[in-house]
Write a structure and sequence with these properties.
alpha+beta; Nucleotidyltransferase, domain 5; 4 domains
Length: 397
């Protein structure tokens, strides 16, 4: 302002023409006449620098739209602009909504955004857990990490999702990862929805074991229903990455803070499932909801589960409750998970037999050495004695 005032003082003192003064002060004649005009109208205050901001903002977000964005975020605190915008667009089609970046600015100005530390993605985190095919091709199952309820009891959420649509089919609060509880939940899901082509799980209880083919009673039941078993590699949760990502949302939105009792926690899980499946837009689904992409399976849950069928040239044996079966005069151990189940044996070579449960190859039995070698293992049982072993990857056939 001092330079402008000096210019005006020189002009008032008649120190030169306007053109000459403008040349002296390094300004254009238009600027010089502008300063003189403002001085005549407002005096010295007219020489103060003015804001260059526009007098009007025709593209500014309306107060109604701002209020809707803030209200939607308060109703869904963990949702960001990418999920809030499709929700608001469907609920308020007549209101022009701001861009995603503008919605983020609105939430920041309202103090509703908490800064997070930026995580660097490590190379190789993608894993081999891709899921091809449509809905019900692969279902993903797991027990989410347990947490303590308000009354001190432990809660183990059993979760089941459709790998394609991300539809949550089950989120049941259990007291532990037990076979009976898991089967009860799965029977309800199978009755309500139908049967998938495959189920992907980790190698923990009750989905797998350390025995032959890593079979558990639960996975034996799946095989009898014609469901393929998919196992992720130990220590590779990223191979079930879609399911693990859902667990992170479950923990943030439905388990913190935990409810007081198992019943109230289950009610909260049910409300959360309804929102996740039918309201929450999913970025990987181009903003659609899981329910919008899901379709029921074509296979229904049978009223009675039958034994596997084997070709006529197979020898059939019923496994005892202790997991043993008699083959060619030798009592060999297979797995307690196969207790009471019907297995088949086909001769591959003279005295060498392949033992199968349905389409799954279990072991090779050599009647000359009286030894049984599980598929994927190089160590055999001798004369019917049992050696504890860990079997590598199981390949459904």
């Amino acid at each position: 302002m001092s330079e402008k005032m000096n210019f005006i003082n020189d002009w008032l003192a008649g120190c030169g023409t306007v053109s000459g003064l403008c040349q002296t002060y390094g300004d254009s004649r238009e600027t010089g006449h502008l300063w003189i005009r403002r001085f005549k109208q407002l005096g010295a205050s007219g020489l103060v620098d003015r804001s260059k901001a526009a007098h009007s903002h025709p593209n500014a977000t309306s107060p109604d739209a701002c209020a809707l964005v803030i209200a939607a975020h308060r109703a869904h605190p963990s949702w960001g602009p990418k999920k809030l915008r499709p929700l608001l667009k469907g609920a308020h089609p007549g209101i022009e909504l701001p861009a995603l970046s503008t919605m983020g600015d609105i939430l920041k100005r309202a103090g509703l955004v908490q800064p997070r530390r930026r995580c660097r993605r490590r190379q190789g985190d993608g894993g081999s857990g891709s899921i091809s095919g449509g809905p019900n091709h692969v279902w993903c199952i797991d027990y989410k990490g347990q947490f303590r309820l308000g009354n001190g009891d432990m809660c183990y959420p059993l979760t089941l999702t459709d790998g394609c649509s991300r539809m949550i089919l089950c989120c049941d609060a259990h007291a532990g990862p037990r076979h009976d509880d898991a089967r009860r939940s799965l029977e309800r899901v199978f009755r309500d929805f139908g049967l998938p082509d495959a189920i992907r799980s980790d190698n923990g209880t009750p989905f797998a074991s350390t025995g032959t083919a890593r079979l558990s009673r639960l996975s034996v039941w799946w095989l009898k229903l014609g469901i393929e078993l998919q196992r992720i590699r130990p220590g590779r949760p990223q191979e079930n990455g879609r399911h693990e990502r859902m667990h992170r949302t479950l923990k943030a939105e439905a388990a913190r803070p935990p409810e007081r009792s198992m019943a109230s926690q289950q009610a909260r899980f049910d409300r959360w499932m309804e929102e996740f499946n039918f309201q929450r837009p999913h970025e990987a689904l181009d903003g659609a909801t899981p329910a919008g992409r899901y379709a029921l399976p074509t296979r229904e849950y049978p009223k009675q589960v039958s034994d596997p069928e084997y070709p006529g040239h197979y020898e059939k044996r019923r496994v005892r409750d202790d997991g043993t079966v008699r083959l060619k005069g030798v009592q060999v151990y297979l797995s307690e998970a196969l207790g009471s189940q019907l297995i088949g044996a086909v001769e591959l070579d003279d005295g060498v037999w392949r033992i199968k449960f349905g389409g799954l190859e279990l072991a090779t039995f050599d009647e000359r050495t009286r030894s049984l070698t599980p598929i994927g293992s190089t160590r055999a049982t001798s004369k019917g004695k049992l050696y504890k072993r860990k079997v590598s990857g199981m390949r459904p056939v």
